[in-house]
Amino acid sequence: MRVPARSVCTAIRGDIVSGVFERGSRLTEEQLARRYGVSRVPVREALRTLQSEGFVVTRRHAGACVAEPTEQEAADLLEIRQLLEPLGAARAAQRRTEAHLKVLRGLVRLGQDRARRDRGEDLRSLGAWFHETLDQACGSPGLTALLTQLRHKIAWMYSVEQPARPVEAWVEHGAIVDAVARGDAERARALATLHAERTTEAHRLRTAVAVRTSQHSVNTAGGRI
C-alpha cells in the first residue's frame, strides 16, 4: 500500500522539530526512505512541502537540508503569533460549535486541576491541546493551518519554560473560553493578546541537537505518525 506523502511529511517535520535532524544537516531521499520504511516518491513530495513551510531548504551541490533560521526570524515568529492568536480567538467567539466548547471547558478543568496539584509534566501537552482546539474553533481552515504551522516552527526554535504561576495561566485560558462561549469577540481578542504577551517571556531559543540515526516505520493509520 502506498504511504501518503502527508504521513511522511508529518514524520520528517516531527523529527526536525524534536531535533533528530540537526539544523543545516543534509536530507537525502535514500536516507529518509530507509528511515521511515517507504519509497522515495512520498519522501520527495514531503520534502517539497517542508520546503514551502520553511523547514527545508535546497542548496547547490548539497540538495535538501534542514533550514537554519536566524535569531531575527525566530523573533519574528513570536511577533506573528501575537497577531494571529488573538484573531483566532475572536473568530472562535463568532464561529465555535458546542463540541469545541465542550472540549475547551474540559481542558480548562483538567489544566486547572493539574496546575493546583503541580503536575507540570501534564500541563505542556494540555496547553498544546487547548490552543489546537481554540485554533480549530475559529472556523477558518486557512487561519488554522497558519497557526498550526506557526506552532510547529516555534516548538522547533524555542524551548518553553513552565509559567511561574501555572494556576494563573489556566485562569487566563478559562477567561478566554468564557468570552468565546458568550460570543464576545473583542473580549476574546483582548484576553488572547494579553495571554500571548505574557507567555512570550517564557520562550528561550534552543541550541542545536545532534542527529540521531535510529530508524522507524511510518504508521499510516489515520494519517498519523
Describe this structure in words.
This protein is mostly helical. Helix content is 65%, strand content 6%. The protein has nine helices and four strands, in the order αααββααααβααβ. The longest helix has 25 residues. The chain is elongated. The C terminus is likely disordered.
Ordered list of secondary-structure elements with their pairings:
Elements: H1 5-18, H2 29-36, H3 40-53, E1 56-59, E2 63-66, H4 71-95, H5 98-116, H6 120-136, H7 141-157, E3 158-160, H8 166-182, H9 185-200, E4 203-205
Antiparallel strand pairs: 1-2, 3-4
**Secondary-structure-derived class:** mainly alpha
- Proportion of residues in helical segments: 55-70%
Which strand order does the major sheet show? 1-2
Number of strands: 4
Radius of gyration: 19 Å
Mean pLDDT: 88
Judging from the principal axes of the Cα atoms, what is the shape? elongated
Q: What's the helix-strand series?
A: HHHEEHHHHEHHE
H/I helix tally: 9
Which stretches are poorly predicted, pLDDT < 50 over at least 5 residues? 209-214, 220-225
In percent terms, what proportion of residues is strand?
5-15%
The span between the termini is 16 Å
Largest sheet: 2 strands, antiparallel
